[in-house]
Amino acid sequence: MTRPCIALLTDFGTTDTYVGVVKAVIARLAPDTVTIDLTHAVPPGDVRNGAFQLWRSARYLPPGTVFLCVVDPGVGTARRPIAVRFADFIFVGPDNGLLTYVLAPDEHLAAVELAAPEYRLDRVSATFHGRDIFAPAAAHLARGIRLESLGPSIQDPIRFALPRLRLAEGVKIEGEILHIDRFGNLVTSIGLVEVDQGMTRLLPWLPGCEDASIRGEEWNVRLPSGHDVRFRSTYGDVSADEPVALVGSDGLIELAVRGGRADQVLSLSVGQRVVFMPRE
Prior knowledge:
Order of helices and strands: EHEHEEEEHEEEEEEEEEEEHE
Number of strands: 18
Oligomer: single chain
Strand content: 25-35%
Number of helices: 4
Distance between the termini: 58 Å
């Protein structure tokens, strides 16, 4: 029999005991559960960063995984603690937009507010719902407790506005900087992109975007400064310290600098507009 799995994504860091205590609660309530640390290095309170990190990792977990997601600057306020069953997974965390990307397909989902006291710890702190509410809920769900037992149904999990991604003038794809990884690479919202035999195809990963095929193999990414970065296959296609645009491991176009940090060299930050376009 396959052991149940809980995947953890938080902004707790590893300096303090927060992650260890959350895992201890899980171990007490669901001792047969496998726990996987996706990351605990989401910048403190950065819900959008956590939402993207969750999207990029969720597809690799086994069906039935319970995701324990805690990036919660509103802990202790009126924001709801929730659990959402979507596709083959259950997501547990604060109702603050953290699930925006994984729920973007907007297919059938079931969601509840985590209100049932029997599935919390006896004492609930106003500052550590990860330990007192979310970890117990995730553990009970991993053990097979029905989602509906944890609280009343809700219909409207909070989602933030999705990033820019659109086809312009029939040949340009407009997007924005979505994420900066620890190497300084700039992940854009432009994707999913496939280049094959003289055609470039945009397979949108966000709702409301067109599936478009555009003739051409020679492309640039135009920056807000008006400068262009050449689109290549890999980092090794350019010289040291040279910028390059390529399809990253998530299928989204990234900007990188070989041997350097693209965020610093190109002076770009999250939210800035970029355009994938034919080389002039």
